[in-house]
Amino acid sequence: MAFDIEMIKNYYESLDKIISTTRSILKKPLTASEKILYSHLWNNEILKKYERGVDYVDFAPDRIACQDATAQMALLQFMQAGKHKVAVPTTVHCDHLIQAKSGAFDDLKAANTASFEVFDFLQSVSNKYGIGFWKPGAGIIHQVVLENYAFPGGMMIGTDSHTVNAGGLGMLAIGVGGADAVDVMAGMPWELKFPKLIGVELKGKLNGWCSAKDIILKLAGILTVKGGTGHIIEYFGDGAINLSCTGKGTICNMGAEVGATTSTFGYDESMKRYLESTGRKDVADMANQISEHLTGDIEVYKNPKKYFDQVITIDLDELEPYINGPFTPDKATPISKMKDEAVKNDWPQKVEVGLIGSCTNSSYEDISRASSIAKQALDNKILAKSKYTITPGSEQVRYTIERDGLINIFNNIGASVFSNACGPCIGQWDREGADKGEKNTIIHSFNRNFAKRADGNPQTYAFVASPEIVTAIALSGDLTFNPLTDYLINENGDKVKLTPPIGYELPPNGFDVKDEGFQAPNEEKKNIEIVVNPNSDRLQLLKPFQKWNNQDLKDLKLLIKAKGKCTTDHISMAGPWLKFRGHLDNISNNLLLGATNAFNDKVNLVKNQITHEYNETPKVARDYKNNNISSIVIGDENYGEGSSREHAAMEPRFMNVKAVIVKSFARIHETNLKKQGILALTFNDKSDYDKILEDDTFNILNLNQFNPNENLNCEIIHNNGSIDLIELKHTYNKNQIEWFKAGSALNLIAQNA
Questions:
Q1: For burial by CB atoms within 10 Å, which of 128, 165, 645, 648 has the most?
Q2: Nearest 5°: CA angle at 240, between 236 and 245?
């Protein structure tokens, strides 16, 4: 039986009328994405043709999912909203605060000891406000959602950028900041600029060593990390139908790495099979009755260039495995070219660790295909030359692969099994020796490989590949090993050529689990008082940010002019800082630790305009704050790419940063800044970035005439007394301007509660 079955039933019953009306108003066939968007308009929203990439539209998502790191701040904010219960189905998943070190049992035990205060807080708040709670060890949020909550044609938001994983089941699932989630929890609409559409036609069928992972690795190379910004990617074609549901999930999941708003597939038989195998035959039966409404119209897929803003075609018959990296997920290298690229770029060829699993690639299909390679190794007396780890996506997957003997196969080649949690994928990996800072290579099936992300070592060269390629390379210990052409040498000195992996789309004997780790909210505890120890270093009740004083922002000091890539990892690091996600004051001590100062090319070293000395970036920010001085941050292209973490917006706000001015923003981060009352602005002329000097002071003018589609002016006052006047663009609409005036979006909600 599915969760929220009545909600799904009511939605499906309404679809025929909504889609017929939409088709008549738009006077054209509809993509799958458009059907979902137009069927989730907020109830006061006018059904009309919205201009892609221009119109801001209010939506009504079906559900919300929060992981434990972001849930802390989201729920702390929700507690200020004056509501008694969440307005839409919501879940909290404890997956980020479990550090991978010794193995599943010991690591989970350590997490429950180290983070009990946070877990207890999340559980009690969930009970109080009617939220479903998935306890530590239950699994990674996105895999658990796919197994339990995702449904074709639905719309959900989640406080994690890889929420898009649910697109594998035909949803529009979108990563957002916690403040967006709070809006919806509080019964408010969720606002999104109506996305443009990229259609990806998949032809043919995967074969041999190729997997769904290779599709998105290739696409990342085509689109780059920002090529999908402001777009939904919709996959179609015979190649899409030939993919498994979980393979589709892998592709959607990693679509976050190209900046896409979300990715999705139309409903097909693979989704039906997955729903039935995960105990949701009732959802599959209902979806089958309206299947034409859960995918794009036939005409759309026959003539995609007429209906999508961009069309990309990938022939699966000709696809080869890819390895992406290092340091960015869009540097795509076909495996046949890796040897040349590694030599040319002086990448360390010895692979220290191979890691498979995570929310991106931990399906039964993934694990079974990887285990078939491991079994070949055992049969041919080959042991892994690299360390090798597995991170299951959920307790259901872990229990099932253990029951079917797959874990035993991995153990026999020397593998370690980590807890059902994010672990190394998000920097929660206590890797022995990482503190030495030695140059080394790892390869994994995760989604991101930014510098320092996995183990905190900037000299760890991380590459991304499918679980089966990771397994083969871990057996060889060599980044340049190509299992399609190369041989391994076994213990007897014999040459062994691996055969292509074989796996199962779904477990032949079905899924099984003893304790999935779910706790429904306890209605008897709805009046519980949430107490936070004022001396806690993990949790801190929030105070509202100050509202705008109706004056221009003047005498802003430059905190940092960030150069080059500045992701949310650079702005608010994860790893050891995750434990402070519920304590805004403490976590603000990591503000912009990873950003490169354009004036000295150093990380975490900026000039303090009070002392005229150089110091760590968060220390300078706090010094300004303590002296009642407001500051400004300058950034480069695609500022804030990567994770949806709202701390990257809350920390500068807490530290008295009034504006962030950049060449361009990543979507989620721009929204997060707006929600927290920081001015998110872009240079009208990108060359104005070069006018900014180290000792500059800034005045942002015309704020009393702050209106949509009207530029603001900024005075850059140089140390020699000269002034540059520049124009700044913005994407604020009327409602978002009210957020700024109120001091934050949350202040506005509480004001109207």
A1: 165
A2: 120
